[in-house]
Amino acid sequence: xxxxxxxxxxxxxxxxxxxxxxxxxxxxxxxxxxxxxxxxxxxxxxxxxxxxxxxxxxxxxxxxxxxxxxxxxxxxxxxxxxxxxxxxxxxxxxxxxxxxxxxxxxxxxxxxxxxxxxxxxxxxxxxxxxxxxxxxxxxxxxxxxxxxxxxxxxxxxxxxxxxxxxxxxxxxxxxxxxxxxxxxxxxxxxxxxxxxxxxxxxxxxxxxxxxxxxxxxxxxxxxxxxxxxxxxxxxxxxxxxxxxxxxxxxxxxxxxxxxxxxxxxxxxxxxxxxxxxxxxxxxxxxxxxxxxxxxxxxxxxxxxxxxxxxxxxxxxxxxxxxxxxxxxxxxxxxxxxxxxxxxxxxxxxxxxxxxxxxxxxxxxxxxxxxxxxxxxxxxxxxxxxxxxxxxxxxxxxxxxxxxxxxxxxxxxxxxxxxxxxxxxxxxxxxxxxxxxxxxxxxxxxxxxxxxxxxxxxxxxxxxxxxxxxxxxxxxxxxxxxxxxxxxxxxxxxxxxxxxxxxxxxxxxxxxxxxxxxxxxxxxxxxxxxxxxxxxx
Length: 536
Description:
Blueprint: H1 2-33, H2 38-47, H3 54-64, H4 66-71, H5 73-110, H6 115-128, H7 133-144, H8 150-162, H9 169-191, H10 197-214, H11 225-236, H12 239-247, H13 257-266, H14 268-278, H15 285-293, E1 302-303, E2 308-309, E3 322-324, E4 336-338, E5 342-343, E6 349-350, E7 354-359, E8 364-368, E9 392-395, E10 399-402, E11 417-422, E12 425-430, E13 453-456, E14 459-462, H16 463-493, H17 495-517, H18 524-535
Antiparallel strand pairs: 1-2, 3-4, 5-6, 7-8, 9-10, 11-12, 13-14
Helix pairs in contact: 1-3, 2-5, 3-9, 5-6, 5-9, 6-7, 10-12, 10-13, 10-15, 16-17
């Protein structure tokens, strides 16, 4: 399959190179002879069928994206979008070409070109166009062209001559098409990075093992253990079982499917030899295929072409604080890739900004220095720093001490901000909208009140809101007084009615004052939603 894809890719490159050379040569010819040599212009659009050369590009784009289209959902969406753009561009190219053909035919007719050129142009136009009605209409127009006003013909020719940029539309559209196609090609190749040889072999072997597990009981499932043992014994190493395994090889593979199929074809005879002759003597399928036969892998903690042991093998590879480069493969140089915080050829020392929290003959544990330390440290905490970072001061007894920039006489923040000290730094936060300068967050931390606010009890209060609250307060008590006066007036006329109304007024006043004085119940559900949104 890979050879087939490479062969198709070489064919595509050859066709694409030929197309570019032919396209730019023809563009140059048209640019030089567009208005002078009318017959050459018609021959160019008739003979050089540029659009047909787009077919190998489209076919190649589909071929290189087959497995991506099947396996990658979002890449499929991307392919569809880009393909839609390319289809739209091709349609636009056809439309532009039709316009050029119409202009060329009219122009040739104006200059009394021979009739066979017109017939050739119309027939070729029908081959290029999806709808020959357009060309039939052109033919009807050509039959009436001799009756056109000479002034109109001159204006048409003048417009054609003054707008040569019309002929560059096709080139621009083609360039845009190939840019999108090449971008899609590059992104597809990036997605389809081949897996390493050792990993490919492991994928192939895992597929075989899964096939063996799938066919372990074969067709003889039942409850009679003795009967199953008698029947399964010949089936376990039979050609029938091997065939069933081979039929489903690599089908469940997600990554490296092409390489898996390639190995299946290449090492089919080796698999049969292992199955019938070496299955008992070499039960380790991975070791037999990947290490001994294909020689693309090494035993664990070995590297390189000769499967050299990694540093520190077998007891402590890289001091148990790193990984051996190329371990398990025929690649790599065997050097130690240390974990974060460790350094040295064998990862036996602490890196800069780390210190040895524990160390003996067999073990080394490195921990990160305190955030106040600039570079190395000797122990945990600020006392272990050998040098302090900016924003910290060194003290002989306490080590690095945080500098409180907010405590300085001159605030580092703007007048409408307040300072919040952090470890080794500070932050400037905006004051409350009621403040014109502040020392902290909230309207009770204002130095002065902003316009529209007044200071009451060391708090800046909205003046308009305060006036509104006062108005509501006075109105409420005036209403209460009015209800009481009305009850007294009714009491002079009818004692019973006045008693009922008095009870109602008292209930109303009590309920109103209770509702006003009671603090509102917080909406816990809304608070939970706000917290969840903030955390997410």
